[in-house]
Sequence to fold (481 residues):
Amino acid sequence: MKKVLHISTECYPAAKSGGLGDVVGALPVYQEKFDIEASVIIPKYNLPWFQKQNFTTEFSGHIQLAEYGYNFEVQKLKDGVLPYPLYCIDIPNLFDRPSIYLDEHGKGYQDEPQRNIAFQRTILQWLVKCNKDFDLLHCHDHQSGLIPFFTKFVPKFSSLSWIPTIFTIHNAQYRGIFQWYFQKYLPAYDWQHNGWLDWDHCINSLAAAVKVADIVTTVSPNYMAEISMYSGNLETLFRSEQQKCTGIINGIDTEVWDPKTDKYLDHKRTHHWQTFKNKNKKSLCEEFNLDPKLPLISFIGRLANEKGADFLGESIYHACKMQSNASFILLGSGDKEIENDLLTLQSYFPDRVASIIKYDEGLAHKIYAGSDFLMMPSRFEPCGLNQMYAMHYGTIPIVRSTGGLKDTVPDISEDGNGIAYLESSAGALTHSIMRALELYSNKEQFKKLRKKVIAIDFSWEKSAQKYFDLYHQILEKQLQT
Fold:
C-alpha cells in the first residue's frame, strides 16, 4: 500500500472556503479503494470545528523566519473522526485566526508570505525529523507550491528529495506571488537555483511548482487548455511544461451528497424522483414566500465577478419585466455592491425573488433539492462542483461554457444535459433563462432531461482512478531512475 500526504490549506469538514476544501476532504476517502493510504495535513485555524475535536501532539519544533521566530506543533486528529489521518500544523500567531484567508475587513492577510512559507517549512521539518515514510507528496494550490522546490533544492530537506511531488491547481488566479525581499523567509539554498522560483521578477509559488513538480494537474481538462492559452502571463510556462500537465475532473462525495440520506433535507428521496422534487420545492417556496407552481431558478455561490454574480441583478430584473413566469432564489455573500443589488432586486419583486445574503450549507442542500434550474454564469470556472450537486439532485444547470462547466454541461442542442452559452454578459444569461423556461413548459422534454442528469455518475471513483494512474506513473518512473 502506497502512502500519500495531501498538503492543503483546506479540508472539509475542518476548514472550507470553496471547492478546494471539498476535494481534499473527499479524495482521500476514495483513494483507499485503490490501495492508497492517504493522509491530509492543513493549518490549525481558530474555527469552530477544531474547537470541538481532540488532537494529540506528534511533534514540537521551532522555526525562524528572519527576525520572526515561531514555535509550532504537528497535531493529529483523534482516530475515527474522519476516515483518514488528519494532521494539523499549529503555529500560534500565524494561523490561529477565525478566517482562513481574510481579515475582518475582507482583505487578504498582510503576512501571507510568512504564513505560507512557515506552513510549508514546518511540514518538511516534521517529515525530516520524524522520518515519515510517505511515498508521494500531493500539493494543492500555491500555498503548498514551494514544497517541490524545497525538497529538491534545499540542503536541510535533502533526505526528502527522492519523494515525488504532484501539484494540483484548483484556481490559477491565485499564485502566491511576493517580492524577492521575502526571500529572507525561505530556508537556505544555493542562489543559482533562483530561476526555479522566479517569474516576472517575483517569487511565484504557483509557477515554481509547475516548473519543479513531477506532475501538474488541474481540476478539469478544459481548464488546463484554457490556462495554456490565456492565464495572465503564465501561458508560455504551461505550454513549455505541457508534457507533464493534465486535467482531471473533480468528483462529488456521494456519501455527503445523497438525496436518500441527506441530513439537511426534510424530504428525502424514496422511490419517486418527482415526489422528491415536488415536496422539497414546496417546502422551499413556503419558507421564502414564493409560488411553487412557477419554475424555480437558483444561484448558490460567492457573490463575485469571477462567478458572474454581477450579472444576476440585471438578468433577473429583465426576465421578470418580460413577464416570464419564474421565481428566483439566490444564496451567497461577498461583494457588497452585488449584495445590495440582489436585495434591491428582491424589494422590486418580493413575491418572485428571494435573496439570502449569507453562506448556509444546509440551505444550499435544500435549494439543490427544491430548484428546477441552477445558474452558474461564471467568467471562469476551473471545475465547478455546484453543477454536479445540482444534477445529482435533479436540477438542470444553466452555465456559461468555460473551464469544467464546458466539460460537464454540454448544451441540450448538442444532446447535452443543460443550458450552456458562450458570451459572458447579462444579456446572454437572460436569454438562457428564457430558454430554460421554454424547456420547462415542455413537460415531456423537461422530465426526460431531468431523468438524464440524475443518471450521470459524478462520484469520485473515476477521478480517484485517474489520480491512482498518475501516482503509479510517477512511482514507476522513479524505480527506473
In short: Residues 2 and 91 are 29 Å apart (CA to CA).
